[in-house]
Amino acid sequence: RSYHLLTLSAQTGEALRDLAERYAAALPAHPDSELPNIAYTTHCGRSHFRHRLAVVAATVREAQAMLAAFVDGQLVPGLCLGEVDGGKAAPRVAFLFTGQGSQYLGMGRELYETQPLFRERLDRCDAVLRECLGRSLIELFHPVKPPSHNDLIDSHPCGQAANFAIECALSDLFRSFGISPAAVLGHSLGDFAAAYTAGVFSLEDGLRLVIERGRLMERAPGS
Description:
- This protein is 52% helix and 12% strand.
- The chain has helices at 13-26, 35-44, 60-71, 109-114, 116-133, 137-141, 151-154, 156-176, 190-197, 203-219, and strands spanning 4-10, 51-57, 79-83, 94-97, 183-186.
- It has a three-stranded antiparallel beta sheet with strand order 1-2-3.
């Protein structure tokens, strides 16, 4: 990933500052290659208490500098400080999936290059698209050279498949981060991504349905 999220927490504000000071002192002994594991452990391997601090950093030096600033009483960009109200229930989240028309060249490129789960989902969709349409989904999104066609935008099968693939990959990525919907809704084509997220069918089966839907729409009379 390009950036990492270091999460610290304690039962009091003073204890949180002490913890940040210890991390600021310890981090310089570690190379940048260890920052992903350190960030993962602070999030997934530690208890989370009421007083919380989050640091967004690309390198160990960045993380150390921001923690040192916090210890000195500064809230610099990249730092987020807050308290959790234990009496409040976690907010309920809904996912709303859009219909056809939001796709564009280059869509999802950075996520495809940096998020293994997102990449794996799009690669699975790419295999289905090659099987059903003889086209590469990845090439539609990220062509090596400017395309001579506009199938990503104008072709119903390709455009709808692209939207469905991105929506499902994003849904799975959010859920892997612990953001799970209490409800899912879809507009038009988005119904299929909502159904996939709800567990109605597999990614591959949903995509085959979407491709067939696109073929039917392309053959339908204009009126």
